[in-house]
Amino acid sequence: MSTGDNPYQDDHGNHDASVTRRGGESTVDTTRTSGPVTDARGGPFLIGDNMTGGYGKGPDILHGCTISVDKGEIAVIVGPNGAGKSTAMKAVFGMLDVRQGAVRLDGKDITALTPQDRVVAGMGFVPQTSNIFTSMTVEENLEMGAFIRTDDYRPTMEQVYDLFPILRDKRRQPAGELSGGQRQQVAVGRALMTQPKVLMLDEPTAGVSPIVMDELFDRIIEVARTGISILMVEQNARQALEIADKGYVLVQGANAYSGTGKDLLADPEVRKSFLGG
Ligand SMILES: Nc1ncnc2c1ncn2[C@@H]1O[C@H](COP(=O)(O)OP(=O)(O)O)[C@@H](O)[C@H]1O
Ligand SMILES: [Mg+2]
């Protein structure tokens, strides 16, 4: 197919992560804050603003947590196990009762929307676990991803196959037979099938080798270059912050540090406590 109409196909061969850091040198912001890191040109594209909430009738897990991402930007959430990173993602996606605070997409308050309605509004979510149908083929997984589409989704599927060529080769195989890295490609591809404006990824590189991780990060950068915002939780904190426009360190359900990826990587406190020195 032609590459001219393929939004995932831009800038091949140029994977310099620095191009994702538009604006360059911003001021160091490692103060304890729950405010958004972005400038206030009308607010960030997606923001979970000052979110407090927990599961069911249980205690609050999030305490005034704020997470945001702008158009085409990569925002990364890091922090210790159990800090509430996945919970924050679920709150932004509408899978958690947000008792205080709000979620806004493109300036609109979507706090009351169901997850399905958020998909319709332009959000894609790849959860940390059970993010593919293992007994279905790769292609069936992508078709499931297109569930809200009433138009022809074949061109989008071709774009996903161009982004992850191995999936085209394995499209008739049950997804459960694929390697860990390939399964994550299926999960990301499935989420892309709704043509989201913002893609939320909870630990997309969990359990994969460093080489496969680099490869996945390159593909994620490629997706961001098409204008899709990426909000991602990562265990590989150092590597993820290297490709991040913006980073958040969450501790016990609250923002501990936030700033550009570069700032956080350079911050002695963040390095010592969260990046292994
Ligand atoms: N479905 C759930 N029901 C109740 N508590 C949960 C649930 N999922 C996570 N938690 C609790 O929320 C806290 C934060 O978990 P989580 O968001 O998964 O952390 P992280 O993703 O940063 O490792 C933990 O104390 C965890 O036990
Ligand atoms: Mg988690």
What does this structure look like?
Keywords: Amino-acid transport, ATP-binding, Nucleotide-binding, Transport. Residues 46-277 form the ABC transporter domain. One of its GO terms (molecular function) is ATP hydrolysis activity. The chain has one domain (42-272): P-loop containing nucleotide triphosphate hydrolases (Rossmann fold). Helices cover 31% and strands 22% of the residues. It contains ten helices and ten strands. The protein has helices at 85-93, 115-120, 138-145, 154-163, 165-169, 180-192, 210-225, 237-242, 261-266, 268-274; strands spanning 46-54, 60-69, 74-78, 97-105, 108-109, 123-126, 198-202, 229-233, 246-251, 254-259. The strands form two sheets. A six-stranded mixed β-sheet has the order 6-7-8-3-9-10, with helices on both faces. The radius of gyration is 18 Å and the shape is globular. Residues 85-86, 128 line the site of magnesium ion.
